[in-house]
Amino acid sequence: MQKILTLSNISEISGIIGGKVQKLLSGDRHQIEFFCSFEDFDLLSFNYHEIKDKQDSKITIYLDKENIFFICHEEPMLRVAEELAGTAASDGSLNNEQLLYHFFARLLKNDMAWLDEYELRITDNEDEFISGEEKDFTRKIISLRKDLLNFKRYYQQLELIFDELLANENDLLSDSGVRYCGIIQRRIDHLLNDAVNLRDYIAMVLDSYQSQLDYRQNNLMKVFTVVTAIFLPLTLLAGWYGMNFDMPEFKSVYGYPAVIAVSAAIVLFLIIIFKKKKWM
């Protein structure tokens, strides 16, 4: 039998799955952690991550020699499961192993395109900050990093499930079933590697952004330092001539112009020195 149903309707298959499984699924806290292998059946449980809407929905798959049941814990997941496996499950055109493969193949079908889109978004943000046109760069890039962390966790749980499934400890899968699961596992590994690489790419972009900010800040501090150094001698002169007693220069007609000329000469001299030292 092949069936898609919600957790609230699990009584429909209670005669097949037994009271123990029903109790595991119906408890206050879901007690199945990714994969459970029993003598006559397997239980696969994972949080489906909706990439577009960024929503998680739990689903448990019961698989034995004769039956496969897709048990959705939330209503949104029921619609997803019906879209992915509904037609094949209702007309019985696929056996259980083929249906399991069909479900996960369609589940992961568009994920590569989504990850490629995220890579383009990261690249666009990188180009913006390099050109100096970034707006809310940090917020955007951190949001992308959080999304990729969710992808990474999603693919990790699927990878764990198929690692256990391929072990086939209860000989539930046929040779073709093992081959189908191997195909899905390799696809999951590829997606997981892409998600991890994109997170590394984001880390590199953030480091580059921080380096760019540090470079701009250092240039700004350099300008302030040069300006301060140039006008420091003038500050000394101003303090000197601001003292409250007579100086010989005050009695000379050329005293004030001479001080101005000396000040200008000091500034010009310092500018020449700084340019030769390539400090400005």
Automatic annotation (TrEMBL):
Listed under catalytic activity are:
Mg(2+)(in) = Mg(2+)(out)
A single MF term (Gene Ontology): magnesium ion binding
Coiled coil in keyword set: no
Residues annotated as coiled-coil are none
Q: How does the protein associate with the membrane? A: Multi-pass membrane protein
Q: Where in the cell is it found?
A: Cell membrane
Tell me the domain of life. Bacteria
Q: Does the keyword Lyase apply?
A: no
Keywords, ordered alphabetically: Cell membrane, Ion transport, Magnesium, Membrane, Transmembrane, Transmembrane helix, Transport
Q: Name one Pfam family in it.
A: CorA
Q: Which InterPro entries match?
A: CorA_cytoplasmic_dom, CorA_TM1_TM2, MgTranspt_CorA/ZnTranspt_ZntB
Chain segments annotated as transmembrane: 223-242, 254-274
Q: Which GO terms describe its cellular component?
A: plasma membrane
Protein family per UniProt: Belongs to the CorA metal ion transporter (MIT) (TC 1.A.35) family.
> What is the recorded function of this protein according to its Swiss-Prot or TrEMBL entry?
Mediates influx of magnesium ions. Alternates between open and closed states. Activated by low cytoplasmic Mg(2+) levels. Inactive when cytoplasmic Mg(2+) levels are high.
For this entry, the protein name equals Cobalt/magnesium transport protein CorA
The taxonomic lineage of its organism, from the top, reads: Bacteria, Bacillati, Bacillota, Clostridia, Monoglobales
